[in-house]
Design brief:
InterPro entries: Kinase-like_dom_sf, Prot_kinase_dom, Protein_kinase_ATP_BS, Ser-Thr/Tyr_kinase_cat_dom, Ser/Thr_kinase_AS, Ser_Thr_protein_kinase
Shape: globular
Pfam families: PK_Tyr_Ser-Thr
Radius of gyration: 20 Å
CATH architecture of the largest domain: Orthogonal Bundle
Number of domains: 2
CATH superfamily of the largest domain: Transferase(Phosphotransferase) domain 1
CATH topology of the largest domain: Transferase(Phosphotransferase), domain 1
Distance between the termini: 29 Å
Structural class: alpha+beta
GO molecular function, one term: protein serine/threonine kinase activity
Strand order of the largest sheet: 3-4-5-7-6
Helix content: 25-40%
Strand content: 5-15%
Number of helices: 9
Number of strands: 11
Domain Protein kinase: 25-289
Organism: Populus euphratica
Length: 351
């Protein structure tokens, strides 16, 4: 599978070791949807999994771009393994582009925090989640990968709500590659300010950046973990990005403990080179954790569990994408049928 300028060749080949037989995939209810893909709960062999079906695109240019992104994502998922990255199980490109990963039952960090409001997480739990995220990012960066879309929607909890795993590599890139940073890269509210500049916006020039964009996003997520409030509250996503990029506005760090305030404010500094790397961030978080007292149990009002258990994967995994649970109940749940339908049948029904 070759690449030039970050885009894959027309053959669009996937390594055979990544491929799974789509006839062994059985699809249940839809559990998530994004701009470029839908995610379903399903089964693969004896395991409950998340099945991400990637939209193919309409125009030849769009199709080529999405195929390149899909091939890149699969390659990264196979390559990187860590306990705080969702496990990759396999992929197929026919009849559609599909990525299969472990299914985590705890829902997204976004929905978990919403269920806790207006209460805040216990500080040890919040810092523990932050450590999970930082360790996942340290692993990615050690492989030369920038995630570029670090936000609570892409962080998934295990069933016991004790561990966070990073998901969705749809926008991840190898740091050695450069490309135009556009508004669709990452999510405005969590994006680093260097992704914008008046020159870039005015003339559409290429914007070079490095892995420190993820440190900025981490700072915003950490602030949110501590306060359990939406960062830049009262602003739209676009207003928040504009304020951060052109006015150097940040959420208030005044009410944070001194050590945590130092972590947050150093990670969201305007100069990317002044931000710490994730190895340093982990050490700072561990130091702070050693200074605070033992936690009191904090349990959300509404704990949701699935009747489906995740069975151990038969083969080693890596990292992966979303496993969005319907914690808020906006999507009606249906039980996976005792005799699951074939992947092809479900695909025809869904599209």
């Amino acid at each position: 599978m070759g690449s030039s300028n970050g885009f894959y060749s027309e053959e669009f080949d996937l390594d055979a070791k990544w491929l799974i037989d789509p006839k062994l995939l059985f699809v249940g209810p839809k559990i998530g949807e994004g701009a470029h893909a839908k995610v379903y709960e399903g089964k693969y062999k004896n395991q409950i999994v998340a099945i991400k079906i990637v939209h193919g695109g309409e125009t030849p240019e769009e199709i080529a771009k999405r195929e390149a992104r899909f091939a890149r994502e699969v390659a990264m998922l196979y390559r990187v393994q860590h306990k705080n990255l969702v496990k990759f199980i396999g992929a197929c490109k026919e009849p559609v582009m599909v990525i299969v990963t472990e299914l985590l039952l705890g829902g997204t960090l976004r929905k978990y925090l919403l269920n806790m409001r207006p209460r805040c997480l216990d500080m040890r739990l919040a810092v523990g989640f932050a450590l999970d995220i930082a360790r996942a990012m340290e692993c990615l960066h050690s492989h030369g990968i920038i995630h570029r879309d670090l936000k609570p929607e892409n962080l998934i909890l295990t069933a016991d709500h004790k561990t966070v795993k990073l998901a969705d590599f749809g926008l991840a890139r190898e740091e050695s590659l450069t490309e135009m940073m556009t508004a669709e890269t990452g999510t405005y509210r969590w994006m680093a300010p260097e992704l914008y500049s008046t020159v870039t916006l005015r003339h559409g020039e290429k914007k070079h950046y490095n892995h420190k964009v993820d440190a900025y996003s981490f700072a915003i997520v950490l602030w949110e973990l501590i306060h359990n409030k939406l960062p830049f509250e009262g602003m739209s996503n676009l207003q928040a990005a504009y304020a951060a990029a052109f006015k150097n506005v940040r959420p208030s760090a005044e009410n944070l403990p001194e050590d945590l305030a130092l972590i947050v404010t150093s990670c969201w500094k305007e100069d990317p080179n002044a931000r710490p790397n994730f190895s340093q961030i982990i050490q700072m978080l561990l130091h702070y954790l050693s200074t605070i007292s033992a936690p009191k149990p904090v349990i959300p009002d509404r704990i949701f569990t699935s009747e489906n258990a995740v069975l151990p994967p038969e083969s080693p995994g890596t990292s992966s994408l979303m496993a969005v649970r319907d914690v808020l109940g906006e999507t009606p749940r249906t039980q996976i049928e005792d005799k699951p339908r074939s992947f092809f049948f479900c695909f025809n029904q869904c599209y």
